[in-house]
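ok so I'm stuck.
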Amino acid sequence: MRTIKYVATAATACLLGLAQLSHAQSGPPPGAPPPGGGSGIPNGGYAVPPGAGTVKDPAGLPDFSGTWMRAEGFTHPDQSKIFPFLTPAALADFKQHIAVHDFHVPWSDCEPTAFPAIITEMGMPIEYLMTPGRVTLLTADGEVHNIWTDGSQHFDTPPGGTYYGNAVGHWEGKTLVVTTVGLRSDNDVVMGLPAGTDNMKVTERLSLLPNGELEDQLTVTGPSYLAKPYRYTQYFKRLPNVRVGEFVCLPSKNRDNGTSLNLTPPP
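replied:
not stuck anymore, here's the structure
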């Protein structure tokens, strides 16, 4: 297992106590019918959720299509900012594990980076595709996050949640409002804080700014860990001459077009 070590702050060390609720597999076991599925639906498929196809995208939408990169690059935020938002029990977990400097999130073990870490933690380019009824987020390591804007409701989440959750969105003028639920308990939700329970929810408000950047206002709620909603904003700059390539994570190393990468955060 490739474990990412954070030694910069004692606060980070305590994340281990919050990351114990992990699942070896997301989704139903092989051969089992998928949630909401039924006869004739293969494993890995889902029944079309209620409301699908009942809403049409309005005309004159902003164009999110293209390749984007976090405007500030690959940086690690100050994790102590999450402290005032934690419940007393969650904060106590941090204090109990003050001397522990290892914690596990899916991408530290060559599993999918998962949502929302694909946009908030990793420094790779991402691509948005806009098609009728759907906005699709693609990443260099092959991850896909579907945002359904066709009136779909959230479908039943597999036990334990999934790497990307399930996301539905709607347009409020020029702003895309997205709600993602059904996340795995060990998903890196915000600054290393795992989702912890399947009821953690991430709400995004995406809009194009006059300077051409894409603004993503995120709100994270989850009563088991967060005493009040945590809000932060991510900015992306468009990369007009860049296409999303291929990034492969291997257990022994991380490979990008033959170049080994060290993903250990700086001290």
